[in-house]
Design a protein that fits this description.
- This protein is of the alpha+beta class.
- It has two domains: about 200 residues, Orthogonal Bundle (Arc Repressor Mutant, subunit A); about 35 residues, no CATH class.
- About 45% of the residues lie in helices and about 15% in strands.
- It is globular, with a radius of gyration of 20 Å.
- The mean pLDDT is about 90.
Length: about 260
């Protein structure tokens, strides 16, 4: 049985697959800390493993080149792709959010922020102290005296709940992937592809705020644990040599620390 089959089926069942977005995930998760360069053959290998046809990959690379995300150069019959300087700059803030370490201690102090919407009424946000969001129209810092289940139930939208349900369904499958470099690299790519779409759309929610029936009470910790499980084998897919010691430190620092 194909260990990735449920993940591949889920990937292709979510509407038209944006192959260019998968390519960006590959660069961010597997390529940038390995010297930043990948061949068409390597891209074809990992994306082919999750059911992407060569023609769809060529179309995606053409789009990314046209939009200024990637550049390529020929080496005989081999094409090598890199992110452009603009593409690298776009990656920095996203990378810090995707791979931020999980919170390890309970929240003791909170920030209640109010943002005036277009109707002049306030939208409220409750976050752990230290959360760096956009400038608020009102901000109160202190302890939390009461938080009912009914209020927590309002904090998770139907769309975000569905995204977390998809992630929760993936995690047991990912944990069972064998330690084969290609299998693990493809699995880790799928994990981060789903996680990236969640974390870049919605800010982290503290586990204390999650509704009682949430699909995942602490999704960042769950993702970090699965990522650590997959990483030793996944990193072998592009080889065992690191371009620099700084590159290895950047990789091992993801989610608060990896053992590679």
């Amino acid at each position: 049985m194909d260990p990735l089959a449920p993940l591949v089926t889920a990937l292709h069942s979510e509407g038209r697959l944006r192959v260019w977005s998968l390519v960006i995930t590959v660069f961010g998760d597997l390529v940038q800390h390995r010297g930043g360069e990948i061949t068409t053959g390597q891209l074809g290998e990992i994306l082919g493993r999750v059911g992407v046809e060569p023609g769809a990959l060529r179309t995606a690379l053409s789009r990314l080149a046209r939009d200024g995300w990637v550049t390529s150069e020929r080496d005989g019959r081999t094409s090598r792709y890199r992110l452009t300087p603009d593409g690298v700059r776009e990656f920095a803030p996203a990378t810090s959010r995707i791979y931020a370490p999980p919170r390890t201690d309970p929240v003791k102090r909170w920030v209640l922020s109010a943002y005036l919407n277009g109707n002049g009424s306030p939208d409220l946000r409750l976050d752990p102290e230290g959360f760096q969001g956009e400038a608020a129209d009102l901000r109160v810092v202190g302890t939390l005296a009461a938080l009912s289940p009914a209020y927590r139930a309002t904090l998770l939208t139907a769309e975000r709940r569905a995204a977390l349900e998809g992630l929760a369904a993936d995690l047991p499958v990912l944990a069972a992937v064998p330690p084969n470099p290609l299998e693990a690299a493809a699995a880790r790519m799928l994990l981060i592809h789903r996680w990236r779409r969640i974390v870049l759309r919605w800010p982290d929610m503290a586990p204390e705020l999650m509704p009682d029936d949430t699909p995942l009470r602490d999704p960042r910790t769950a993702v970090a644990d699965t990522y650590r499980h997959l990483s030793p084998a996944a990193e072998r897919w592009l080889g065992t040599d690191w371009p620099t010691s700084a590159a290895k430190r950047a990789a091992t620092g993801r989610f608060g620390g990896l053992d590679l």
